[in-house]
Write a structure and sequence with these properties.
This protein has 109 residues and is α+β, with helices and mostly antiparallel strands. It is built from 3 helices and 3 strands, in the order H-H-E-H-E-E.
Length: 109
């Protein structure tokens, strides 16, 4: 079923008031993800497609929560801008505790 609603999408920046600060947990996540991501040569200003698979230890985890932090780290690591992403696919898998993961694929389209 395809549904189209004539409503301007609301950005995360417009959804919250006031300044948000990175938590120590986010700073640690950012540091380790920067180290774990491989070096890639991504042309700037190209249309990109990003596929994510998130392995959560619980079914109750929201599929969209890790997207923005991961995209922000990818921007920092690869020098891309998330406004160059024209397609985003997200998949959730439930795995055993301690086996959580992030899988991603970046393609130029």
């Amino acid at each position: 079923m395809k549904i189209k609603v004539e409503l301007k999408p609301l950005s995360v920046n417009r959804a919250w008031q006031g300044k948000r600060f990175k938590t120590p947990e986010y700073k640690s996540f950012e540091k380790y993800l920067m180290l774990l991501l491989p070096k890639l040569d991504i042309k700037k200003k190209e249309k990109l497609k990003v596929d994510f698979v998130f392995g959560f230890a619980t079914k109750a985890s929201d599929i969209d929560n890790p997207v923005k932090p991961c995209l922000d780290v990818m921007q920092k690591k690869y020098g891309i801008n998330d406004n160059d992403i024209f397609e985003l696919n997200i998949k959730k898998e439930v795995v055993g505790k301690g086996n959580e993961f992030i899988e991603l694929r970046i393609e130029q389209i």
